[in-house]
Amino acid sequence: MLEEDDSENKGLEGENKKMDLMALVIYKGVARRVLLPISSEEIAERFGYEGQEIEVTFDSIEELPDLDCERLTLDLANELAENVEDVDEDLVLSFIESESSDPKYLASVEFDDCSLYSDVATDRELGEYLVEEVGVELSKEKLLQYIDYEKFGRDVRLEEGGSFVDKGYFVSR
User: Fold this and answer.
1) How does DSSP classify residue 133?
2) Taking the model in full, what pTM does it have?
3) Which of 12, 42, 74, 110 is deepest in the core (most CB within 10 A)?
4) What is the pLDDT of residue 14?
5) Pairing status of strand 168-170 against strand 30-36
6) Of 9, 3, 40, 15, which Cα lies nearest the Cα of 116?
């Protein structure tokens, strides 16, 4: 199990970019931009139908360009907006890219259980980051799975100029 420092865990080295969601909604061929969450009354008012119930179609959410808005309802859009409002934008966008563009799924994600290690793009970078920055504790058994002791020992011996003698390994410093 990896032990992680929460201050570095979420990839928030910089400023936390709070998610404010601006949706493009359509009613009777007219499009309006609205900030989520928003009530049905406020939407009706934005389209000039104050006091009436109207059903709008969601075309897109600007901050979430890859989100599947085809079956997005007002209630679901509001749930989604509330779920991501205090979450770093990069974490949300990474979730959509990696896991799902389904708004129902995104509205229920526990982002406290998600991590984003910024600037880590390869397995090697991930390994280095976890060992050097997070300080992963590995048991000897786990370490044996990853380290080729023979190659490591040879590199150290060649670097130090050491040699094997009858009594063991000798190096003169």
Assistant:
1) I
2) 0.72
3) 74
4) 42
5) unpaired
6) 9
- Spatial CB neighbours of 84, under 8 Å, sequence gap ≥ 6: 19, 21, 92, 106, 111
Q: Which of 14, 18, 10 is nearest to 117 (CA)?
A: 10
Closest CA to 105 of 115, 95, 113, 116: 95
- Tell me if 12 sits within 8 A of 92, measured CB to CB: no
Residue 116 · residue 91 · CB < 8 Å? yes
Residue 6 pLDDT more than 80? no
Side chain identity, residue 59: D
Q: Which amino acid is at 148?
A: D
Quote the CA–CA distance of 77 and 23 in Å, as a whole number.
9
Dist CA 16 CA 92 (whole Å): 12
Q: How confident is the model at residue 1 (pLDDT cuts 50, 70, 90)?
A: very low
Give the three-state DSSP class for 135. Answer: coil
Q: Give the 3-state secondary structure of residue 82.
A: helix
Three-state secondary-structure class, residue 157 = helix
With tokens 């526990």, the residue in question is 110
**Assigned token pair, 139:** 């048991």
Q: How many CB atoms lie within 10 A of CB 25?
A: 25
And the tokens for 108?
């229920």
Tokens at 147, concatenated? 């380290």
DSSP single-letter state for residue 71: T
